[in-house]
Amino acid sequence: MHVCFIEPRFPTNQRLFVQALAEIGATVTAIGEGSKASLSDEHKHWLTHYEEVGNVTDQAQVLNAVKTISRAKTIDRLEATVEAHIMTAAHVREAAGIPGTSSRTAFLCRDKPAMKEVLRAGGVPCAASTAASSAAEVRAFAEQVGYPLIVKPRDGAGASGASRVDSDAELEAALKALHVDKGRSVAVEEFIEGHEGFFDTLTLRGQVVHEFATHYYPNVLEAMRTRWISPQFIQTNRIDSAPGYAEVKQMGQKVVTLLGIETSATHMEWFSGPKGLKFSEIGCRPPGVRAWDLYNVGNDMDLYREWAMLIAAGRPSSARRAVWPRASLPCARIAMAASRTTTGSTRFAAPSVRTSSTGTRRRRAHPRRAWRRATWRTRGSA
User: Fold this and answer.
1) Going along 24-104, which residue ranges are E strands?
2) Where in the chain is the domain with CATH 3.40.50.20?
3) Which of 18, 222, 299, 380 is the S-S candidate for 317 at Cβ 3.0 to 4.6 Å?
4) pLDDT in tens, 180-206
5) Which band of pLDDT confidence, cut at 50, 70 and 90, is reported for residue 105?
6) pLDDT digits (tens, 9 = 90+) for 238-272
7) Cα dihedral sign, 127-129-135-137
């Protein structure tokens, strides 16, 4: 299996995807913006070939690099794990005849109004939303739905450019900041009150193989707009045993099916509050901020290897699901009860991170190097 990977060096955890592919025996080549001379010794060991381009989001440049690499060995998979690279990779796949995430799926996972139109039609509960290319369209939506609203770029990520507006004056300020007066199209959504969480998956041929539920404190928009806040997200390894997550899991699989996601990582966001469970958005990629490292620690697994196995071998490394309740393992254990909080705004109780020592404390995600030395690392084979 020959896998060509887009941009193997930045962000820094990109190297872990390349490493995992090489460790399971795949032939790995890469396309990136840096020079060959600047590759680390590890990259040179893992990669069979590296092709430099000026811009990895330029479809023509990436396609030319793919053609160059393909002349030596046919590319079986072209993979990207960074949001900004997903659409380009999808277009290049289709132009080169390489299997993988389609342009339609990549578009639906990036364009929020189109995404929610498809999901609502398929019965997935979402906030009321619309795409608008003029101030008049936004004002009409505000009159129909009422405040508060969220106004954001159609293809934004990580709450980038998003604003909550509670009045006509705030709406006008947001429209000006997003250049709607110059014809820029934006997404406008009903504000959903409630607790925010993630649902992250690895899928194989359209079916969820590994799944993770994560709780975000405070909500993403508040954390992004209040810079002194140090946000934290806390993941449970009881997703299969706590009944409160059943609805989230069912919704996640339905989203994967409706958007045509085949073999890929996904990152979904959801809200749970007075209006029930609502889907927020999805990225057809792994979550950011090293979330996978937290999942690895809490579940005694190697998600980078699991991703590589699905991409290159077409199967997970083992039949076990991503929930490991053995509290005796010497790593962080994350416990969460699925019950109503005192405010009644969510079905999920506030979680805690339990370590092997006495007491309870919050814990940051571990770097991969800290846990990959453990003896379980030998589990499974390609």
Assistant:
1) 27-32, 49-52, 77-79
2) 2-100
3) 380
4) 988 889 999 999 989 999 999 999 999
5) very high
6) 999 999 899 999 999 999 999 999 999 999 999 99
7) negative
Buried b or exposed e, range 361-370, using 16+ CB within 10 angstroms: eebebbebee
Give residue 226's pLDDT.
Answer: 81
Residue the block writes with tokens 């005849």: 97
> Do 41 and 75 contact (CB within 8 A), yes or no?
no
The answer regarding whether domain 2-100 maps to CATH 3.90.180.10 reads no
Q: CB of 8 within 8 A of CB of 54?
A: no
**Tokens coding 197:** 């969480």
Q: What is the dihedral of CA 273, 153, 282, 331, to 10 degrees?
A: -80
Which part of the chain has CATH 3.30.1490.20? 128-190
Strand ranges (E), the chain: 2-6, 27-32, 49-52, 77-79, 129-132, 149-153, 163-165, 186-190, 195-204, 207-217, 232-236, 264-273, 276-283, 333-335, 352-354
- The pLDDT of 164-190, averaged and rounded, is 92
Whether the per-residue pLDDT at 333 is higher than 90: the answer is no
In angstroms, how far is CA 354 from the centroid of its own chain? Answer: 25
pTM: 0.80
Q: Which two tokens stand for residue 182?
A: 């110059």
160-173 in b/e form (b: 16+ CB < 10 A) is: ebbbbbeeeebbbe
Q: What confidence category does residue 222 fall into, taking pLDDT thresholds of 50, 70 and 90? A: confident
The residues that bridge with 196 in the sheet, in sequence order, are: 271
CATH 3.90.320.10 fits 195-378, yes or no: no
Q: What CA–CA distance (Å, rounded) separates 139 from 172?
A: 9
Is the pLDDT confidence value at 370 over 80? Answer: no
The burial class, CB within 10 Å (0-12 / 13-18 / 19+), for 175 is buried
Q: Determine how many CB atoms are found less than 10 A away from the CB of residue 282.
A: 25
**CATH 3.30.470.20 placement within the chain:** 195-378
Nearest to 371 by CA among 335, 331, 334: 331
